[in-house]
Design goal:
about 180 residues, mainly beta, Immunoglobulin-like, 6-stranded antiparallel sheet, 3-stranded antiparallel sheet, about 10% helix
Length: about 180
Amino acid sequence: MYSRKYIFLFWFLITFICGYSQNQSRLVSLKLSNVEIQDSCLSFNIMLHNADNNSFTIYKPFLKDICSGVMKCYFINTETKLRHEIFPCNEIVQSLAIILNEKNSVYLEKNEYFIKELMINLKEFSPHLRDGNYLFIAEFYLEDIVFETSLPNVLKTNLVSNKIELHLDIENKMH
């Protein structure tokens, strides 16, 4: 029979390893801010913040990344739970690899952040949005992307933003 000392040590080690691995993706965060609706457009800021002790090269999000599945932006109706995704594309683009360079990436030291403003036409959400209360969320899928680069320490993890609560009164504005 194993002694209690070894069982406790084993339990502590497993708990530490599981906790550490779960917190890895949270060391770099994706945050939505300054969400505004003007006429039939949604404007918002995406902030990537590095809270890790390590520095990272991070791919900058572009609206065109929605077409290749690298990024998703969507509303969830709080009453019906229906998900409304943006798809401003004529076709789905299969992205096997991204050539990462200084123009499409940012190098973040500890506690540094990068902010990018994006604007989306509300008509590009499917199914079409109606008046009501929604949660707005963005996701950034970097884990399975092949980055062709010589840049150091490229971040390869999936990120999910905070949820922004919005009331939409758009039916009369979009017709």
